[in-house]
Amino acid sequence: MTATHTSRAAQRTAAPGAHGRRRHKPASQRPNWLAGLMGWLWLAVVIIPIYWIVITSFKTQSNYYITNPLVPPGDPTLDNYRLVLDLDFPLYFLNSLLVAIGTVVPSVLFAFMAAYAIVRSAGASRFLRGVNSLFLMGLAIPLQATVIPVYLLIIKLQLYDSLTALILPSVAFAIPLSVLVLANFIRDVPKELFESMRMDGATEWKTLWGLAFPLTRPAVVTVSIYNALQVWNGFLLPLILTQSPDKRTLPLALAAFQGGPYGVNVPAVLASVVLTILPMLILYTVGRRQLLSGLTAGFGK
Amino acid sequence: MSAINARRTSSAVAPKARGGVILPWLATPALVVFAAFALIPLVGVLLLSFTSWDTLGEIKLTGLESWRAVLSDPGLPHALWVTFLITALSWAVQTPASILIGVFLAGRQRYRELLAVLYFIPLLLSSAAIAITFKALLDPNFGLGAGLHIDLLNQDWLGTPSLAMGVVIFIVSWQFIPFHALLYQGGVRQIPRSLYEAAELDGAGRVRMFFNITLPQLKYTAITSSTLMIVGSLTFFDLIFVLTEGGPGDATRALALDMYKRGIQANLMGQACVIGVILVLVGLALALLLRRLGGRNPNASQLEGA
């Protein structure tokens, strides 16, 4: 090993010619053509279905059957969107929005407070250590497996078929991961800052909202977007905990739309798909940098 | 109990005296909601598995009746097998792909940053939307294969048992590889540059560095990612429900779907809870196994370490 090392090093200094330089240029400085090619190929796999959804949603139903599926329509139409908007989609949209806001705000606030307590106590409180282990266990348990008791609980609380029924379990399910990611970020706040707040006589409550919360805003954004995505796209809870059409959230409405009389109208179904993605796409465009870096940092430490 | 602990804390760590009293209270709202809608149902699923309940009538204690019914049902080994296949195959497809893409995205080239943004898009879609999309794309009469006249693509994808399973694996991978690639990207970026610099001085090529440095250094990322992947795939429901409803026949009837069909559709809540208990136990066992594999618990040390 050492022998190879020295001989290679010697070779490099001994042969600075053009041929030698090319051969010994470190791997990190050579462009990696193969990886680039695979990267673009994967992009094609990811984007083609998305592209197809978008262009098809502007086709008329009759054109859908006869035109090349990957060529955009020559005469794009908005009829599909009009049809979908006339079919109560604005209501489902509102339902999804209410459930998302109703879940994200409490889940992030509660998780932040818990994460703050866990980090600040630094393992000194047995109660908080227990809470922490409990949330970590929550990450390993498939909580969806407990939907039947959740269903019973919601019936007993007389919340069945209401948006509140969707919000409460969603908050609970969102808490473990939120606490984990937020705690990782709060830990990065320099200890001296906490110390100086304490010297100034600030309470923990004031330090929490006045120092830790503003300083970890990227993490709060990350967790909020992530939780919003989970709830916005959630399917099992709405399916089990509601039954009236006017309580449907978007994913449930999509499935019902496709299974219903309009289901054969594929361009209209896809227009409804586009409408459900749009808000998340906007959220992603706005918070992309924070979401991507926040998720990697939150998990990867 | 918390007050006692807090007091002990404050005496042990003098500077925390003021905060020691309030800190446990800060965790209470999260704990209460989590306890009410996650912990109680977790206990509830076990208790309900010893009862029979048809959603309308009384909940009757029936001992092991539901367990006997489920365990003697030939549908159970089949659902277990389907779940195992989906979990194992989707792990085997997603993990290498996510590692490669994660390593690729860890490079700081501008085009890779652009690709990272686009790669993430499938994660914005609901499983219902994805299932609806692929159902239309794979339609034997009007789908992509038929429209482009490519016979290879034009199969009865969702009507043939083995193909339907393949489609589920493919779609799951399409949907979740971006997320796991992101985890690996973060993992790769934390590997000290000096390791690669030393290897380059030794004349190691890209492939050797990948196998000798990158892969071993990604161990803990792989454990986190695999845990999320496996626990997640045990409960895949939305996608299968919308895409195939477990079909053709029972070919894609995984445990989570089986639970829904027994419980909500057939009103056999006791039996559905038996499946729920099995899911929780399998998930927990796999998570513990993966943790053991890691030699330490990366999550706990993340939270409790300095």
Overall CATH class of the largest domain in chain A: Mainly Alpha
N→C terminal distance of chain B:
26 Å
Unreliable residue stretches of chain A: 1-22
The end-to-end span of chain A amounts to 32 Å
Q: What percent strand of chain B?
A: under 5%
**Using only CA atoms, what is the Rg of chain B?**
24 Å
Specify the oligomeric state. heterodimer
User: Which CATH architecture of the largest domain in chain A is right?
Assistant: Orthogonal Bundle
SSE sequence of chain B, one letter per element: HHHHEEHHHHHHHHHHHHH
Q: Considering residues with a beta carbon less than 8 A from a beta carbon on another chain, report the largest interface and each chain's count.
A: A-B, 121 and 119 residues
Backbone shape of chain A: globular
Q: Would you count the extended β strands of chain B for me?
A: 2
The assigned structural class of chain B equals: mainly alpha
